[in-house]
């Protein structure tokens, strides 16, 4: 790909490049926070891809613009918008973008140095009781046809997990998990939850298929119940350290236990 223009860094978080980005958001995607150096947090609804799998504009991507998968960047007329993290299509929540290459490098370095704190929430089928655990695995990912599949491997995957509540629902119990992934491997949380007797409700790859069927019948829930609720980080740009935080506005509605009303309790 030819060199991309660096793009403008907006001083007030509006106008220019960020205003253009707002006009190209689709599928219910919205901007939830920006900073003066060009860092942007958006809310990606569940069901959208984080990015197209090729250069063509995709109607199920959050931004209606061409995408370069090699550079991990959306190509807008006003300049590039770099994608800094990814979510599975079935997972909604916070994605980070940068409007210039130096900022993208700085934030990606923060991810590499584990200076980024991520919080996810999940409704899973409850297998046992615990308060807090540090989950450590070694994973690898391969592509099988059009799908990615994670198994045991050689890349370390660490997650801090908290069991916040358990609720009986007729023939099964649901657990509310708060998950803080320390690493960012493909399908990490879904694989780790399934491996530890907490398969996430609606997970059709690593979940419990019989319980998924029962939950769909009893609760009318078929979608993956995993949500990327917040990201906080520090990054260094031009020798100065900056803090940034973004919270998903959909978290409150996701966490409402009422949507899983007890059946037969």
Task: Summarize it.
The chain is an alpha+beta fold. Helices cover 17% and strands 39% of the residues.
How would you portray this structure in words?
17% of the residues lie in helices and 39% in strands. The chain has two domains: 16-113, Alpha-Beta Plaits (2-Layer Sandwich), CATH 3.30.70; 117-224, Pseudouridine synthase (2-Layer Sandwich), CATH 3.30.2350. It is built from five helices and 13 strands. Strands 1, 2, 3, 4, 5, 6, 7, 8, 9, 10, 11, 12 and 13 form a 13-stranded mixed β-sheet that branches. The model is unreliable at 1-15 (pLDDT under 50). It has helices at residues 16-24, 101-112, 188-195, 209-219, 251-254, and strands at residues 30-34, 39-44, 67-68, 73-76, 79-83, 92-98, 116-125, 132-144, 147-152, 155-169, 172-181, 226-237, 240-247. It starts with 15 loop residues before the first helix and ends in an 11-residue tail after the last helix. By secondary structure, it is of the alpha+beta class. It is globular and about 55 Å long.
- Count of individual helical segments: 5
Quaternary structure of the protein: single chain
User: Structural class given helices, strands, pairing?
Assistant: alpha+beta
By CATH reckoning, the class of the largest domain would read: Alpha Beta
Major β-sheet annotation: 13 strands, mixed
Computed CA radius of gyration, to the nearest angstrom: 19 Å
Helices and strands, in N-to-C order? HEEEEEEHEEEEEHHEEH
CATH architecture of the largest domain: 2-Layer Sandwich
Number of strands: 13
CATH fold group of the largest domain: Pseudouridine synthase
Strand content: 35-45%
């Amino acid at each position: 790909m030819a060199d991309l223009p660096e793009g403008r860094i907006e001083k007030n978080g509006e106008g220019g490049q960020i205003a253009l980005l707002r006009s190209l958001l689709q599928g219910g995607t919205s901007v939830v926070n920006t900073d003066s150096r060009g860092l942007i947090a958006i809310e990606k609804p569940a069901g959208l891809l984080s990015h197209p799998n090729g250069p063509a504009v995709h109607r199920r991507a959050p931004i209606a613009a061409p995408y370069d998968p090699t550079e991990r960047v959306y190509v807008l007329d006003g300049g590039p918008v770099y994608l800094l993290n990814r979510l599975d299509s079935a997972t909604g929540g916070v994605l980070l973008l940068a409007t210039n290459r130096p900022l993208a490098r700085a934030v990606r370095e923060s991810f590499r140095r584990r200076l980024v704190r991520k919080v996810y929430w999940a409704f899973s089928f409850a297998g046992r009781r615990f308060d807090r655990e540090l989950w450590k695995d070694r994973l690898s990912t391969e592509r099988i046809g059009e799908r990615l599949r994670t198994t045991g491997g050689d890349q370390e995957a660490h997650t801090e997990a908290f069991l916040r509540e358990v609720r009986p629902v007729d023939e099964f119990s649901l657990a509310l998990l708060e998950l803080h992934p320390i690493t960012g491997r493909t399908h990490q949380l879904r694989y780790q939850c399934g491996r530890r007797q907490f398969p996430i409700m609606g997970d059709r790859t690593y979940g419990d298929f019989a319980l998924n069927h029962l939950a769909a019948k009893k609760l009318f829930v078929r979608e993956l119940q995993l949500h990327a609720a917040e990201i906080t980080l520090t990054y260094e740009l031009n020798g100065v350290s900056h803090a940034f935080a973004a919270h998903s506005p959909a978290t409150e509605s996701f966490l409402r236990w009422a949507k899983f009303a007890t059946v037969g309790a």
